[in-house]
Amino acid sequence: PKNLWVLGDGQLGAMLSHAGQPLGINVRPVDIMTPSDAQLPLEADDIITAEREQWPESQLSLQLSQHPHFINGPVFGRLADRFTQKSLLDELAVATSPWQLVDDNTSTEALHKAYGERVLLKRRTGGYDGKGQHWLKQAESTTIPADWRNEAIAEQAINFDEEVSIVGVRTQDGRCLFYPLTLNLHQDGILMASIAPLSRLAPLQAEAEDMLSKVMHGLEYVGVMAMECFRVGEHLMVNELAPRVHNSGHWTQAGCHINQFELHLRALCNLPLHQPQVNFQCVMVNLIGVDKDDRWLSLPNAELFWYNKEVRVGRKVGHLNLSVHNNPMLTDSINQLKTWMPQQYQAPLDWILAEFA
Ligand code: ATP
Ligand code: MG
Ligand code: MG
């Protein structure tokens, strides 16, 4: 293609462009949020992807989404709505937390009877970083917000041991390849840090690959998809799917010979594609609501990705990839970060140290 267009121009689009550069693929993220009368110079053999699952209808977004090479077009809407996403998982018999639609007749009594003391309501669309969630707690007699009826699903609270995710790719001829499982730490619904690969997660790899294969084949998907899971004992349950490159795959930028962004581009452009080799174990630390600090660059094993966004509380503004050449170097870097980072980072950084103790 002459151009590979990305619906959306956030950090994922920017990192796709970055990955396209050495391949000579002209990746062009499009800001579809600012109203514009401009016509994009789309050509017949151009390729279109998206860095988000949902977008407002506008001249620009229509131009992109109606192009015959808008890859995975019907998938975005289907996964953007938790009702259709969870229905798909049930149809494919992929394990996920028990759930139901919250409709006009749903009562908290019935939900607690079905799922227990704690029930999580999630808005069907638009939620990210834990936004659009509402806990029902029987002991506190919490109620269903009126305007959430028909707009939310209710899920059983899962008492998981930890959270993991897997990023995989499906080619146009239906081959699936995967990165090793990633261990994730979320705090207040937002991803704080990831570690991959981990030998202790290897026994779960086949199950994760099988689950994500079912989903990608079921959707006839092409490109990179991410699957967030809960580990409950020896097994996995899907939390949610993302039809795109994913924050929990950012470690592959430092850790693998083909990172998730390049892998997505190769699949979309039908280029040769093979199993990504892991060069290093990596730790990814999300930079959330913190100002840029050049001291990060003094860490010998760190790579900084700064998104150049306005810093706001709770907003992802960058990430650090730390490669694990040896445990002392990793531990030193994390201990340094602990002295530079604010209070809310102490627990996530300790969580990383514990994994390497
Ligand atoms: P993302 O930014 O990953 O898209 P999101 O806003 O779409 O997040 P989820 O991933 O559904 O939301 O949930 C956010 C976090 O809330 C999960 O990573 C997990 O920690 C917790 N969580 C979600 N569902 C459940 C559940 N059924 N039981 C227990 N905890 C849950
Ligand atoms: Mg989500
Ligand atoms: Mg999530």
CATH superfamily of the largest domain: ATP-grasp fold, B domain
Judging by the overall fold, what is the CATH architecture of the largest domain? 2-Layer Sandwich
- Poorly predicted regions: none
Ligands present: adenosine-5'-triphosphate, magnesium ion
- By DSSP (H or I, 4+ residues per run), the number of helices equals 10
Structural class: alpha+beta
The largest sheet, given as strand count, sense and whether it forms a barrel, is: 9 strands, antiparallel
Name the beta content range.
25-35%
Distance between the termini: 48 Å
Domain count, please report it.
Answer: 3
Number of strands: 16
CATH topology of the largest domain: D-amino Acid Aminotransferase, Chain A, domain 1
Overall pLDDT score: 97
Helix content: 25-40%
Radius of gyration: 20 Å
Global outline: globular
Could you name the CATH class of the largest domain? Alpha Beta
- How do the SSEs run, as a string of H and E? EHEEHHHEHEEEEEEEHEEHHEEEHH
Notable traits:
Rossmann fold; alpha+beta; binds magnesium ion; 27% helix; nine-stranded antiparallel β-sheet; D-amino Acid Aminotransferase, Chain A, domain 1; binds adenosine-5'-triphosphate; 3 domains; Dna Ligase, domain 1; 27% strand; 10 helices; 357 residues; four-stranded antiparallel β-sheet; globular
